[in-house]
Amino acid sequence: MSINWLKYSSPQAFYPLAGRLIPWFAVVAVALMVVGLYTGFFVAPTDFQQGEAYRIIFVHVPAAWMSMFLYVVMAMWAGIGLGLKARLSFMMAQAIAPTGAMFTFLALLTGAMWGKPTWGAWWVWDARLTSELILLFQYAGVMLLRTSIDDVRRADRASAVFALVGVVNVPIIYFSVQWWNTLHQGASVSMATGSKMAATMLIAMLIMTVAFWLYSIAVILARVRCIMVERESLPVWEEKPAVIQEAVEAR
Amino acid sequence: MNGSSIWEAVSGIVRRDLLLAMRRRSDAAMSVFFLVIVASLFPLGVGPEPAVLRTIGPGVLWVAALLACLLSLNRVFTADYLDGVLEQMVLIPQPLPVLVVGKVLAHWVISGLPVVLLSPLLGLQFGLSGESLGVLVSSLLLGTPTLSMIGAIGAALVLGVRGSGLLVALLVLPLYVPVLIFGAGAVTSSMAGIGGEANLSLLGACLVLSLFLAPWATAAALRIALE
Amino acid sequence: MLQAVALGCSRGERRLFSDLNVKVDRGTLLAVVGENGSGKTSLLRIFSSLLPPEQGLVLWEGQDIQQLKELYSGQLTYIGHLNGIKDDLTPLENLMSSMSLAGEPCSTNGAREALEAIGLKRPIHHLPSKVLSQGQKRRVALARLWLSTRPLWLLDEPFTSLDTAATGVVTQRLHTHLQGGGLAVVVTHQEVALPAETVQRLRLTG
Description:
The complex is a heterotrimer of chains A (251), B (227) and C (206).
Chain A (H helix, E strand, L loop, with lengths): L10 H33 L13 H28 L2 H33 L7 H22 L3 H32 L15 H33 L8 H11 L1
Helix pairs in contact in A: 1-6, 2-3, 2-5, 2-6, 3-4, 3-6, 4-5
Chain B lengths: L2 H21 L2 H21 L3 H23 L5 H6 L1 H6 L5 H16 L1 H13 L4 H28 L6 H29 L4 H30 L1
Chain C lengths: L1 E10 L2 E11 L4 E6 L5 H9 L6 E6 L2 E2 H4 L1 H4 L2 E4 L11 H12 L5 H10 L16 H9 L9 E5 L7 H16 L3 E5 L11 E6 L2
């Protein structure tokens, strides 16, 4: 990548750069996902406590990590946008939200799929799952705030403020739900797999995490390009013809 | 901008809002009626068995108080936004976050304090007694201002937006969860004999945190809404 | 003095104006005219600091108003489209509360005199504002101009809903303000009946 970052802070310069990067990230992501899933589903040893059902954690844990990580990154772009008033930052935050929400939903879904054979219930109120649920609501809030406000500038800034407020909330939620679990003694379930994990299990989870991360970058870059094209009708967009031309060629 | 001017501006805002509330007494009454109705729905739903009611009492009362606060949020800024008083407030040459604290404080006195004062009666309805009632009142006394401060952020974000009633609920409820946990937890702990001090301290911490952080977010949201 | 440097603004997808440069000296009034939707109110709101400009900046006495913040808003009186009065308060209560919150407290007598100066008689001072007509409410909002000592006045269509007599009274008040070294930016559809050398016209074409 170019050393002169500032050059790419303008949408016009970023658009073609993003376009060139996407295929690389996508291909490597898919490759890693295949490797990770194979390792997780076939190579890693059977857990002596939970049998084969535990293998869902190779999707569940990386998805949960990604959902939290993406929220923080989204909040970071939101903060940069508010501080530096940079349009591209807001567009990045807008692009991240749907992918983050998707991973959150995936984490919740796989959590339920794990919970049923392991604990006998589709849902357990442990700290991580409950935090994921609240995180999903926060993603929904960021996205709904954006779609409800017609003025693009106001939508950008309002959802940015909410994203930042939410980032403070997530650790507080996690702590408070753990507290709540200790309060109500019965529910001492935890989604942690225990301190001992075979090396292959860890490797598989790490590979999946990296795969998800690269996938996210590819998808987010593609989405931010769509957002740029959508917004190109803003009067401040000087190089209109070039961007539409690229978009047309890309199809 | 000396200290006395800030104080004059804040007290002026509080006085005006309290005067307006006195002229429209129905606003304060609505929060109280809502609390009573919601709290009464639960026994109707789960049956009158005292042991059950005592178990769910703290949670139900806290959720009812939380929902009452949520419903009152559209009254924090909307009227001022519509008649132009809000933009005049933003132009006051004093730090906006401080003015916001005044505004939210007035709102709490009108919509939140009646809930705190009525809660012992409702607590009796659920079979709470003695010390637990005291803890209930303390938890609501610490918790409802926090809910107002946090809720004001949501109220400011959705000013003038279509469907803001539901949207503000979605934005604000995730932020309310810790307060609910500590608040209901205080009463439950007290009833279990453990004592509610730990939860009450956490509630106090939430209140202090919200007093320092929420006004900044609310002020930013107000400016965004007025652009 | 107030200066706009390379100001640019757009609303939604429409560019309202760009590269706008204008200077308003003390003792003068800038009349902003133009079609509906040409950006007059947006320009006034940029001057009031309620709306940050997309491009360019506004200077007050040579300093950027975004840096001055409260130091700047303490120098201006802004009366926009909305009157900024509460329906459940009387005109007297509204006026005294507005002035006090803005940092310019006034006495009851001072407030009464201001309301009378703009043509609202005594009995009206104690009615709830919701029973007043549009024109009367506008007068309550404008009564601030008789009590404000701030140098910069930003008025958005102040003469709307006013009859000829009231328009004359407000214009006279503006004249006094300018003579005292104040300055004003006024969005208006009508001609402001002030001496030509004190008025600068800016037409926005949108």
